[in-house]
Specification:
By secondary structure, the chain is an alpha+beta fold. It contains 13 helices and 17 strands. The longest helix has about 35 residues. The radius of gyration is 28 Å and the shape is globular.
């Protein structure tokens, strides 16, 4: 937690209302996202209990699994609903011209976006996807293929949720926490009801703190799932489950039918408040102005979705239960790059983020004191290279070393290299050289030159990303999935020697 975040949390606790931590919305919001709430039964099996989903805030769809027996009918209905939403995103596509590195191709103009209450629901969907995508397909049962396809898409969506900046599957508490700081602990922020009470309290509440206390009232508290409240389990679910079990022997299962109807009404009443809170949060986030970098990230999301659709149509084999060493390393490298790129783009777009980085030493700001627009260098070919320089006076600590590349919010495509850091009276003078985005001697881009006195904030520029070269799976050592196929197997004598 940074110094600024701590200050905002203290201010929220003092005033009783959440504080803005971001001026812009940094994730894309679809006009028709798929809201999804999930409940599971308690116990080690974590059996699915109910799903509430839909794209219309006034018409949620509730799917309930019976207390015992097969969950296949509910999962088949869920598969039809989710895949129908995903298929709707494939109706229209656009043509992308060829580039130096990619051929001409088509890309869907939309991509699915599923909003869930919290990270625990993401994990629940991940576990569900791991189970469903490996289920066997029975040609005599068409629902089995739809359920397996649902598992494939749940795995894809939960994998995307691990990438910073992705908007395919978003936990709403994390989304809200990206833009507001409450006066409660980060662990308490995982509860959607109390977090939203801090941010957008009802009109009759004196403050967000009072609204959060009301939301925690045991008489009205409704967890956002996937786990239910213990009191709710004991007082309401357990009697219905017992009644369902007792009615098993009655004619035509009339008692069980009535019990299932009561269970549907009970779970609808239980989940409706969270459903309303999800749409309240969506309205709040949609009202925030969208950051510039959001469009680029959503375009990348549409590209990933298009590629996944092509893979599903051409190959479609499920992802393995556990990644081998090379695949895990590739995934980790992509996650690290996504985190770095997302942080850099947020800093470029949002002054709130730049202010936070100034408190951590990852950025500094100040007025431009001097400019040397005629500075040039001789490159390896002895050609003159235009490298204008400027000096910034900053009161911020500058722990960076000469040679560090920086970015500036006024010209995101430009790059600045620290030439010298000189402590002065009260402030620090930082001499910078523009190394990219300024054009050439023949065609200079003077727009990148700031005016004297202009206040600029410089952040650490992300490194140019290039995927590392990883070995093929059959070339990794035995400790990481090998040995190679032509490696002789260990003899029994070797094994005996090792045991001795």
């Amino acid at each position: 937690m940074s110094l600024l975040t701590s200050l905002l949390r203290m201010r929220a606790a003092h005033t009783g209302n959440a504080q803005r931590a971001s001026q812009l919305r940094h994730l894309h919001l679809s006009d028709q996202p798929l809201m999804l709430l999930a409940l599971k039964q308690t116990g080690p099996a974590a059996r699915p209990l109910a799903i509430m989903l839909g794209t219309d805030p006034h018409r949620p769809r509730l799917l309930v699994a019976p207390p015992s027996g097969s969950t296949a009918p509910m999962l088949a209905t869920l598969a039809d609903a989710v895949t129908a939403y995903i298929d709707a995103c494939q109706r229209h596509s656009e043509h992308l011209p060829a580039t130096s590195s990619k051929p001409a191709r088509r890309r869907y103009t939309d991509a699915p976006q599923i909003l869930v209450p919290n990270p625990q629901t993401v994990q629940h969907l991940k576990d569900l996807g791991d189970d469903l995508r490996f289920r066997s397909v029975d040609d005599q049962n068409p629902d089995s293929r739809a359920v397996q396809r649902l598992g494939h898409w749940l795995t894809y969506l939960t994998d995307r949720a691990d990438l910073p900046g992705s908007a395919a599957l978003i936990p709403m508490t994390s989304f809200l926490g990206m833009h507001w700081i409450s006066g409660q602990s980060p662990q308490e922020d995982e509860d959607l009801a109390t977090l939203l009470a801090w941010i957008d309290p009802p009109r009759h509440a004196a403050s967000g703190r009072d609204a959060a206390h009301t939301a925690e009232d045991p008489a009205t508290y409704r967890p956002a799932g996937p786990a239910t409240d213990a009191a709710f389990d004991n007082d309401h679910l357990a009697p219905l489950f017992d009644a369902y079990a007792r009615g098993r022997g009655q004619a035509q299962g009339q008692q069980q039918t009535r019990t299932l109807q009561e269970l549907d009404r009970l779970l609808a009443t239980y989940m409706q408040p969270t459903w309303d809170l999800m749409w309240q949060a969506y309205t709040l986030l949609q009202a925030l102005p969208e950051a510039k970098g959001t469009a680029r990230r959503w375009a990348h999301e549409r590209t990933a979705f298009t590629d996944e659709c092509l893979y599903l149509a051409q190959d479609g084999r499920p992802r393995p239960a556990r990644d081998h060493a090379v695949a895990a390393a590739v995934r980790l490298a992509r996650m690290e790059h996504a985190a770095t790129a997302f942080a850099a783009e947020r800093a470029t777009d949002d002054p709130f983020i730049r202010a936070e980085l100034r408190t951590t030493g990852e950025a500094f700001g100040g007025p431009v004191t001097t400019i040397d627009p005629e500075h040039t260098l001789r490159g390896p070919t002895r050609r003159a290279q235009w490298r204008p320089r400027l000096t910034v006076s900053t009161p911020d600590p500058v722990p960076m070393e000469p040679g560090q590349l920086l970015a500036c919010h006024t010209h995101p495509n430009a790059r600045y290299k620290i030439c010298e850091v000189t402590p002065a009276d009260g402030d620090t003078l930082v001499e910078l050289e523009i190394t990219a985005g300024m054009g050439t001697v023949a065609r200079p881009n003077h727009a990148v030159l700031p005016e004297a006195g202009a206040f600029l904030v410089f952040t650490i520029a992300p490194d140019h990303y290039r995927m590392p070269e990883f070995p093929a799976r059959d070339q990794t050592p035995w400790t990481h999935g090998g040995p190679p196929a032509d490696h002789p197997a260990d003899s029994d004598e070797d094994e005996g020697e090792e045991e001795q």
